[in-house]
Amino acid sequence: MKNKTSWRRKLREEIERVFLTEDKLTSIFSEYPEKFGDNFYNQIPGDDYRKRLINLIIELNNRELIFDFIKVVRYEYHNFAQDL
């Protein structure tokens, strides 16, 4: 469990490092509805950006979409999540 938490924390830090704002995340998921479904990011709960980001990572992992997300983000940010 600790390993999962550490991995999720590192991914959150990577998202923050490349400055993926909520607007950018919304755009990413809107551009790939065939991979993630319609309005994927808008369905993620959370009172603030960090909580939504944590819930996003958990949901992507639960739906086995985490690697698809990483691939999509790497298309624009080539050095994104290289250590994960």
Give the total of beta strands: 0
Question: End-to-end span in angstroms?
Answer: 16 Å
The portion of residues forming beta strands comes to: under 5%
Largest sheet: none
**Helix-strand sequence:** HHHHH
Radius of gyration: 12 Å
What is the mean pLDDT? Answer: 88
Number of helices: 5
Low-confidence stretches: none
Helix percentage range: 55-70%
Structural class: mainly alpha
What overall form do the CA principal axes indicate?
A: globular
Structure description:
- The radius of gyration is 12 Å and the shape is globular.
- 18% of the residues are buried.
- It is mainly alpha-helical and 84 residues long.
- It is built from five helices and no strands.
Topology diagram in text:
Blueprint: H1 2-17, H2 22-31, H3 33-36, H4 49-62, H5 66-76
Helix pairs in contact: 1-4
Summarize the structure.
It contains five helices and no strands. It has helices at residues 2-17, 22-31, 33-36, 49-62, 66-76. The model has no long low-confidence stretch (mean pLDDT 88).
List its traits.
mainly alpha; globular; 5 helices; about 80 residues
